[in-house]
Specification:
Bound molecules: adenosine-5'-diphosphate, magnesium ion
CATH superfamily: DhaL domain
Number of helices: 10
Largest sheet: none
Helix content: over 70%
Order of helices and strands: HHHHHHHHHH
Distance between the termini: 13 Å
Number of domains: 1
Strand content: under 5%
CATH topology: Serine Threonine Protein Phosphatase 5, Tetratricopeptide repeat
Structural class: mainly alpha
Number of strands: 0
């Protein structure tokens, strides 16, 4: 994965978050404190605004800077979690492939993504089944790794990943939350999708569509 692709994805993600304002906004109003949409908009806008600064950098440095920026611009629980995700991806390159500066194969990108998800899980001390964005990100990561390891073409990988994200999002509907603000609601959270899971499903589906378009 090249820095130019990461940045095209960032621009597409910002547009997609804005386009999905009504869904994301209403979910965090229902089971959170109502700020998730504005957090995501602010964070994605800040990254889109770093386009020219990040373009000349190798992917690991760009990912590290994205993480740092998200930490300071999103704030709240999700700021630290997304920061850990991007910093985890950046670290993958350094620790596992010291000589490779471009994340250039599907399997390497899947491994970096998995590293990002693991960093987020460690940071938030959470796992699947707790009604969080991990209910989308973990199955997406597993599907990405499995299909990439099978040598599937990128179109098949993207379609499988999008479907895993959709299923993961829907899975959050009937869960009781045990992490984040919704944890205080007990059974009242049942019947609502998790807002973080929704924004992750939107972002993943957007990046997959971009990949499908550029292939
Ligand atoms: P805040 O909870 O600080 O208001 P946001 O509204 O931006 O932050 O984000 C809320 C989302 O963060 C939730 O919908 C959930 O998906 C995610 N979340 C909260 N706690 C955790 C955690 N420990 N691990 C993973 N995701 C979490
Ligand atoms: Mg919130």
């Amino acid at each position: 994965m090249k820095t130019s692709f990461i940045l095209s994805a960032a621009l597409a993600i910002h547009a997609a978050i804005v386009a999905h304002e009504p869904d994301i906004e209403s979910l965090d109003r229902a089971i959170g404190d109502g700020d998730h949409y504005s957090n995501m908009k602010r964070g994605s806008e800040a990254i889109a605004g770093m386009y020219n600064e990040l373009l000349p950098l190798p992917p690991d440095e760009a990912l590290q800077k994205i993480g740092t920026k998200l930490l300071s611009t999103i704030g709240g629980a999700s700021g630290a979690l997304f920061a850990s995700f991007f910093m985890g991806m950046a670290r993958y390159d350094k620790e596992h492939h010291p000589k490779i500066t471009d994340l250039n194969t599907n399997l390497e990108t899947a491994a970096a993504f998995a590293y990002g998800v693991q960093s987020m899980m460690m940071r938030g001390k959470a796992n699947v089944g707790e009604k969080t964005m991990l209910d989308v990100l973990v199955p997406v990561s597993t599907t990405f790794t499995t299909t990439a390891a099978q040598g599937k073409p990128i179109a098949d990988i993207c379609n499988a990943v999008k479907s895993a994200a959709d299923k993961g999002l829907e899975y959050t509907r009937d869960l009781v939350a045990t992490k984040g603000r919704a944890a205080g609601l007990g059974e009242r959270a049942i019947g609502h999708l998790d807002p973080g899971a929704k924004s992750c499903q939107v972002m993943i589906s957007t990046v997959c569509d971009l990949l499908l378009k550029t292939k």
